[in-house]
Amino acid sequence: DLHAQGFKVVTIIDPGVKADRRYGIFQDGLERAAFCRYPDGRLFIGPVWPGNCAFPDFTDPRVREWWGGLHRSLVDAGVDGIWDDMNEPSLFGEDGATIPGPVRHDLDGEGGDHRRAHNVYGLSMARATAEGLARLAPARRPFVLTRSGWAGSQRFAAHWTGDNRSTWESLRLTLPMVLGLGLSGIAFTGADVGGFAGFPSGELFVRWLQLGIFFPFLRAHTVFDSHDQEPWSWGEPYLSINRETIRLRYRLLPYLYTALWQCTQSGMPIARPLLLAFQDDPATFALEDQFLCGDALLVAPVLEAGATKRTVYLPAGTWYDFWSDALYEGAANVEAAAPLERIPLFVRAGSVVPMVFVGQDDIPLHTEALLQARPAEPLTLHVYPPAGSGQCAGERDSWLYEDDGESMAYRRGEYRLTRFILSTSEARLDLAREVEGSFDPGYDRFQVIVHGIEKTPSAVEGMPGAEITYASRSHAVRVSGGPFTTLSLRW
């Protein structure tokens, strides 16, 4: 049983319905007048995977309801989501082959031909699927992945960038595509890690995965007759590097989930071009090889074969190197080390980054001294003070959104939204915590790691049963204990 092993099952469905009267769905669609036809009434037939196929007119609300209901057997079997593919719609034949322009569509009662309906065909299929899943399993959030879409399709489905190639050029194209989709309102996106067509080197897969973990949608995917392209397919050292990269993705899930929640509230994409956050800085306007992931993380992927360093532009403000806690002041270019096992990653000063314990430790590798007593707390808050030492005045908000991740209960108030208010002044740091909502995430203890601290605090107040550890080599303080309203550190 896949569910018992922790797997979710997503099945792939194309719009083409095999034109065979012995096939029940085709016969049912004929009787319901569900398929696209020429102006003279002839059924449009086009070649795709099953052979000659008819195509539902998803712009007709009757057809959308019918199509949505066809997912019942899959839902009853325990399928967790649907992947709508080939829904431009794409036909076999010349590149760009699709439904001919004169073929008619309902267009929600307005009527028109495919020249008008083409752009909304994929959107309408995703809508039919999402609305059908919502009717069939009303207590569960629908998951739909679609290859094709249009403005507004983010209401119904996640997207990916389509069939790419296993080349460094295709990797470089991935980032501007995802950033552009986010600016267009389609934020739940990603790309096929490693490329769909071809076979990447171990190095290319590593670099692609390091980028992909910071996109909302992450998967490795390849054409059906290609070489194996799993994270372990190249052996060592790539296996261990990929394992740690995936572990970082899981550690960051609270942060990434919060960024998705922020998107639902404001439309702000998860993967953000720097120009969106720093609109007064002309140096960010043409940057398309680095980006912000959420509010706090600046990601600078390695996009060239053999590279072990790269130039990164840091906008105005103070930035921490995620791996070393080294401090940098923007606006400036810096040269970032990028050995194969590491993607250049920076944290905006003033941020609180929530992470979870995954497998081994929940602390960046440079804080080795803190690993002697591995934390049992399920939630860790990484705090990056505005000037790194608690010596500079400032205040900034960070957020954590939590719910059960599956049901619609959040609409009834069963969520937890936590606002963290980080305040620093001379010789003092305060982390306030304000909570809204009724959801219980199942933990009542916290581990707070304050980065960039030059000495052990003289006093820690506000956390019941606090245990304090200071690592002088990594300049970090760890405070572990129970729930807090305001945690105060003084020097």
Quick synopsis:
The chain has helices spanning 24-31, 61-69, 72-76, 114-136, 168-183, 202-212, 238-251, 253-266, 274-277; strands spanning 10-13, 17-18, 46-48, 51-54, 81-84, 104-105, 112-113, 144-146, 158-159, 192-193, 219-220, 271-272, 291-293, 297-299, 309-321, 327-337, 345-348, 352-356, 379-383, 394-402, 416-425, 428-436, 446-451, 459-461, 467-471, 476-481, 486-490. By secondary structure, it is an alpha+beta fold.
Task: Tell me about the largest β-sheet.
Answer: 6 strands, antiparallel
CATH homology superfamily of the largest domain: Glycosidases
Spatial strand sequence of the major β-sheet: 12-13-14-17-15-16
Domain count: the total is 3
**Distance between the terminal alpha carbons, to the nearest Å?**
55 Å
Helix content: 10-25%
Q: What is the CATH fold-level name of the largest domain?
A: TIM Barrel
Write the layout of secondary structure elements.
Blueprint: E1 10-13, E2 17-18, H1 24-31, E3 46-48, E4 51-54, H2 61-69, H3 72-76, E5 81-84, E6 104-105, E7 112-113, H4 114-136, E8 144-146, E9 158-159, H5 168-183, E10 192-193, H6 202-212, E11 219-220, H7 238-251, H8 253-266, E12 271-272, H9 274-277, E13 291-293, E14 297-299, E15 309-321, E16 327-337, E17 345-348, E18 352-356, E19 379-383, E20 394-402, E21 416-425, E22 428-436, E23 446-451, E24 459-461, E25 467-471, E26 476-481, E27 486-490
Parallel strand pairs: 1-5, 5-8, 8-9, 10-11, 19-23
Antiparallel strand pairs: 2-4, 3-4, 6-7, 12-13, 13-14, 14-17, 15-16, 15-17, 18-19, 20-21, 21-22, 22-27, 23-26, 24-27, 25-26
Helix pairs in contact: 2-4, 6-7
